[in-house]
Amino acid sequence: METHGELHRAILNNIPDQAWLKDTESRYILVNEAFLVACGRTEAEIIGNTPDKVWSSEWGKVYLATDRAVVASGVRRRYEESRPGADGTPRWFDTVKMPVRDAAGGIVGTVGISRDITDRKRAETALLDSRAQLRQLSAYLQTVREAERTRLSRELHDELGQWLGGLRLGLNYLDAQPGAAPADQSAHLQMLKHLVDETIDAVHRIAADLRPAVLDELGLHAALEWLTESFAQHHGLPCDLAMPEAVTASLDSECSTAIFRIVQESLTNASRHGQPSHVRVSLDLRDGICHVSIADDGRGMDTARAAHGQRLGLMGMRERALMLGGAFEIESAPGQGTRVRVRIPARAPTTADTANVVSVTSLTNTTNETEW
Ligand SMILES: Nc1ncnc2c1ncn2[C@@H]1O[C@H](COP(=O)(O)OP(=O)(O)OP(=O)(O)O)[C@@H](O)[C@H]1O
Ligand SMILES: [Mg+2]
C-alpha cells in the first residue's frame, strides 16, 4: 500500500504545472518534477533553500518578496510573469501563491502553482498584431474606395462628359438647322458618329480599368497578357509573361482575381519604386499549387524596413494570398532587384464561375423533358 506521502507526490508529479510548498521563511519543503525541470536543479539543491538561492538573483528576490507579502497578509496572490525558461528563451507564467494554515488558522507556510502560458501569450500577441493589421487594412480599403470613387467621378466627368457634351451640341445644331444643305448635314452626322465612337471607347476604357472584362470572359491567361502588354506600352518597360495557357482552366474566379490583382500591384510597385529595365511575370501549376513570381531588376529594397512601413500594397497582396490558404514572400535587397513570390492552392472553377455556360447547356438539355 502506498503511503499518503507517496500518493501526494504521485499526484504532484503528474500535473504539468510547477508546484511547491514552502515554510513561512520561504524555504522549499516540497517541489514537483515540473518545478525541477523549470529551474534546472536537483531536489537536493532546492529543499531547505530560499528562492534567492534557487533562481537567478533577480527572480529569487522577487519570489522572496511575494512569499513574504502572502505570509504577512494571509491573502492569495495571482500574477503573470515573464522570465527565461529552462533553455534560456523567454516564457510566460501564470502564478498563484496562497497561505497554508494549521488547524488553528495560523499561517504555517505557502503553497504555489505556476503554469506555463507562453503559447497562449504568443497567440494573444499574434491576435493583437493581426487585429492591428486588419484595422490598418480596413482603413486602407476605405481610402482606396474613396480614391477610386474620386478617380471614377473625374473620368466620368472629364471623359464621358466631354464627349456627351459634344454630342448634345451637334444634335442641337442639326435641330436648329432643319433646312441645312445635305453636305453640311452629312459632315455633322460624321462628326456625331465620331463622338459616339469616342464615347464607346471611353466607356470601355473606364470599365476595363475597374475590372478587366477579359478576366471574366477569357480567363487569367488572356487577362495577364492584356495587363503585361498594356503595362509595357504605358511605361515603355519590357515585361515578359511566361505562363502555360492551360493553367487558366484550373483556377476559379477568386484565385484568378487574387493573382491578377497581385501581379497588377507588383507591376505598379516595380515601375513606381524599382525603376527596372525589365520585368518578368511567371506562373506555373505544380502539385495543385499555383506558383506566381513577379521579378524586376530594379533597385530593390530593404525588406525588413518595407515590412514595417505603413504602406499597404504589400500587405494587401499578402492578405489576398493568405485568405486563399496560400503564402506570400518577397525577395529583395538594395541594388538586387525585387521578386514577389506567391503560392496559392489551385481551386477548379465551380458552377458559379461558369454560371452563364451552365445555364445555356441546362436549357438545351432539358428541352425535351416533360416539364418543358
Ligand atoms: N519592386 C519594388 N522595387 C523597389 N522597392 C519596392 C518594390 N516594391 C515595393 N517596394 C518598396 O516597398 C514599399 C512598400 O510597398 P507597398 O506596395 O506596400 O507600398 P507603396 O507602393 O509605397 O504604396 P501603396 O500602399 O499605394 O501600394 C514601397 O514604398 C517601396 O519602398
Ligand atoms: Mg504599392
From TrEMBL:
Enumerate the InterPro entries for this protein: HATPase_C_sf, HATPase_dom, His_kinase_dom, PAS, PAS-assoc_C, PAS-like_dom_sf, PAS_4, Sensor_HK_TwoCompSys
Question: Does the keyword section mention Acyltransferase?
Answer: no
Q: Which Gene3D superfamilies match?
A: 1.20.5.1930, Histidine kinase-like ATPase, C-terminal domain, PAS domain
Q: What is its EC number?
A: 2.7.13.3
Molecular-function GO terms, alphabetical: 4 iron, 4 sulfur cluster binding; metal ion binding; phosphorelay sensor kinase activity; protein dimerization activity
Q: Where in the cell is it found?
A: Cytoplasm
Ranges where the PAC domain occurs: 77-129
Cofactor requirements of the protein:
[4Fe-4S] cluster
The kind of enzyme this is, by top-level EC class, is transferase
Domain (Histidine kinase): give its ranges: 155-348
Q: Which protein, by its recorded name, is this?
A: Oxygen sensor histidine kinase NreB
Task: Give the organism the record lists.
Answer: Pandoraea eparura
The protein's gene is named nreB_1
